[in-house]
# Entry
Amino acid sequence: MVGLILLLGLMLAACVNLYKVEIESSKSYLIVEGTVSNLPDLQVISIFRTKTDAEFKSSEFTSTIVAQKGSSEAVTKAKVAVIENAQARYELMETEPGFYAMPPSFLGKTGNTYQLSVETAEGQKYLSSVETMSPVPPIVRIYDKFNAKGIFDRSTSAGQIATNDFYVDFQDPADQRNFYRWTSTTYEIQKICATCRGGRYYVETSGADCRTDNGLSVNNFFDYECKSLCWDIFYSSSLDIFSDVYTNGKLQKDKPVAQIPLYQSNPALVVIRQMSLSPDAYRYYKLVQDQSVNTGSLADTPPAPIRGNVSNVADETELVLGYFSASDVAENRYWLERKNTSGALPNGLFSTKNGRDPILEQPSDLRSIIPLAECLPTTSRTPNSPSGWRF
Amino acid sequence: MFADYFPHSQFTIRLAFLMNKKLLGFILLLWLPALVRAQNIVSIKGVVIDSLTNQPLAGVAVSTNVDNDIYGQISDDQGHFELFFPQGKRGVTFKLLGYVPRYVFLDQNTQSRNLSVRMEKVENQLEQVVVSTKGYDETVKKPLLGVNQINIKTLSKIPAAFGELDFLRGVQMLPGVSSVGEASNGVNIRGGTTDQNLILLDGTPIFNPTHMFGLFSVVPPDALNNLDLYKGNVPARYGGRAAAVMDITLKTPDVNQFRLSGGLGLISEKLMVNVPVVKEKLAFYVAARGALHDFLLPYISDDLDSVKTRFSEVVGKVFWRVNAKNTLSLMGYLSTDYFQTNLLANLPNVVGETTFFDHQTQNFSLKWVSLINANLDWQMTLSAANYDPTIGTIETATRNKVRLESGVYQRQATSSLNYQRNRQKWEVGASFTNYRIKPGILNPGNSQSVNLIVIPHEFANEMAVFADNEISFTPRFAATFGLRYSFFQNRGPTTVRTYQPGEPRDEFSVLETTRYEQGQTTKANGGLEPRVGLRYAPNPDLSFKLGYNLMRQYLQIVSNTTTPIPTSRWKTSDSHIRPQVSHLVTGGAYHSFDSDIYEVTLEAYLRQSKNIIDYKPGANFLLQEFPETQLVQGRSQSYGIEAMLSKKKGNFTGWVNYTYARTFNQTYADLNVLERVNNGNRYPANYDRPHSFNASIDLVADKRNSFSFSFVYSTGRPYTQPVGFVEYLNNFYPYFDERNNQRIPDYHRFDLAWHIKNPSQKENQRWKGNWSFTVYNLYARKNAYSVFFKSESGVARAYKLQIFGAPIIALSYNFVFE
# Structure
């Protein structure tokens, strides 16, 4: 056979480009979200309402659509309760606007059923479906592997960052249908607790904060070391779920459950939670995943409204977002030594995140002693050593 | 003899039509001489061959005019014809699309004689022929509407993405044919879904018409002979799909000449060999094509490192002229595909990192044609079609392949009688089809983690009887009448659930479960399918047509993706899934001018379908024993106007067309509120593209060089844009409301091809080589295939996916040795 191929250009690779959108919401939706579990944690249900006139726009340079202040507002002063086995009633306390906490003494139990009841200040009544807390098997084996290519993490200055990938083995019980979800929480040592732009940090009896200094440029940064041990907390944003529909009763091996970014070479504490889901909760999360994570294939499933399990008692057609679930949790607190990694710096969390080394204020004529900053507890920072931390 | 009585029956139809008693008597008188003369019948018989290749020509319309009465016949696979007509001074016309018409004149006293007619290809005269919207021949005056017969020569001139003839891309240049985009696994014809098209390869159904996820159409192009696209009137012999028919015929093996042809392209190679075994009696050919170059992909781009894709296919055909009256042909088509990419969703709930697809097709047919007499022939076709798609995952540690295997198996027997005389043509027949569907078997291989899961097979039978009648009442007025009766049985062994009426069908609403054993019918469906086409031609250059079609579909794809993927599930109608029924009304006007060089056509249609398939949010059909729990049914409405201007002869040929088409779907109102799609409101279908414009031009520069250009424009297809975003679960997620509420950017593209014929310039040599240089997407338009939203570490982003973002330049070489 005589022939010749001349290949001048071929772009079989389907390419993906950013696409600009401008979306204006015209309807308002209630978002109810929360999980009750068997862990002695503070268990919180959040209730918000999206605003009708919220605008969502791709940003100019990064084309990201980010949460905007005021795109949803907290639903406050609602009467929120969780009903256990259709008998016991736990009233929830509003701790912050829109956040309602279970009584600290509450501990969920596998086999029990839970139902959320919400009555807004305006008198609208919402009920969730009855969720059964099904048992979850323990994690049989957990290990991590260094992944030099890693993931794209927009919270860092570089973007692409190496990770430690976590895998678990677990024995699926044969006598039941099981649905799983995995979450991870990472505690990283943070050395820098405050940054002042165009100012300096002062500690006073009334509190500690940055104070503007007119002698400094607005682009001047001073960073302040922590007064005490301080941990930054990172929650996984990925949605990892699994059903035993094809694997019932089998030992599952090497299930990837988390990718922990290599922010610094210091060891970190990684809390991996293996949680049970009800069939409906699994279906719900699967839809969320299909519509916003597993997208971009050659044959996507066209998205559709996702109905959660909370509904308006008076009007079944009202679309309520979010899901109230009850999960049994098997937790593994993993000491990630990061000996298998390369390319990260000790105490590098600050510089990885901010794209610059900390600029410590030097003693000067103004003040010879530079104050240390408070490690203020928030949802993403704590001065209390997490259980399982090795000193 | 039946034939002798026939003019009378024709006469009575004419009588009813005219309804004028005075005129009737007059016509009766006029007819008498014809009846008398008809007794002195002569015949001419012989063979029609290509003037250059000496290949017999099938499908040549041989006709003569006797007092405004047309006597016609079509030459058979081996170019043979035999035409009977009253003796007299006659001109016999030989016409075939793509060939210069020939005339043979006979004088008053001509006796029956044998003829060998050589026809010259139009292109050998430096003329081109484009797609014809008429039947094989104008004189046959087909009253069918919306029929496009596409000469494979025409298709091969259309610039293709990889320099390769591609019938699915070719038909998209015609009005009323569209797709969701470049990676679509099929086409949408007049508002139908891809699985509503019946694609036949020599009478056997093709369940997946593409390779490499839409990049190539199936079948080695060298073996293709002809493609008939029925998008309006569909003859009653076709059935089982609700929208359109693409009838692809393969070449008949040449019983006289050895021929080797082949080609090298950017992605694939092909080779075809035709071997005459016994001259004039027995011949076969084998044509193969393969694309096995995927090892080159990583050199082109790092992004292609994870892509593995290859396919190979072979088609073979044996033709045996048993005797002067009987012919047998045997066809076999085999193909296999492998596709591994990160661009497709993985097999969920099996732990593994790489996803792959593979699928195999095996089609066979045996056709026996027996000529009973000059006007009557009998055909019998036995066919089998197997389609076996698999989606799989490769387990990380062990590299073991976990496979989800599925399959569709169809066996069919069709028999028909064709009667042709004067101004009438009849086809009556019956067919029996047996379906077996393997919905899915999860084959764990050596996996320790995955269970073997087997979903029971589905069994069904479809029976049909049909009759088609084509008749010209007067030279101006002609009609086709078709009637099909189809009957479908879903059969055991199977388990059928009954659900609480008015409640969503799920595990909780099951009332009872009934077991059916082998041979028991679980549900039967059936009905008449009338097909009518009328044609009125006030003058030879102008005609008006009107048509009505009813089609029933019992086998369909249930899928929840924008375009079916190779592994999408086929499902028969059953106790819960009602058969799809589609009504189509079409009207058209056709005008040709400048001695048939130009043709203008205008067609309009309205289509109503019921029981179309839609899926509930979150539907999953993989290994689902009761798919009715995942889907809902509804109705669909499409309408459109198609206008086309073509220049059919000369050095400069081509066409431009414009289509306005809409398709809307709506789920049934009696569904539970939670099951309705789009709250029960109607919404545009995924492939609803209101405006499209296509232009295709072929320019012959000289004996060796020709150029083709094509331009395509269409409105972007709908997608679902979120109505807002919410922050929860540590991420930022979109939420959706109305389905298909926005459109992706409009699609347009310009392609060109340069064909160089036989560059060595020597005439009459046995080796002929042709080069084709094609540029697809010349001005590098980054056409969006889809727009989608992704939530990534706390932010959301909108993306568009492009299949071809750059011009694709390809050079291919094709040769013939004979």
User: Anything to note?
Assistant: The radius of gyration of chain B is 28 Å. Confidence is low (pLDDT under 50) at residues 1-38, 124-141 of chain B. The first strand of chain B starts at residue 41 and ends at 50.
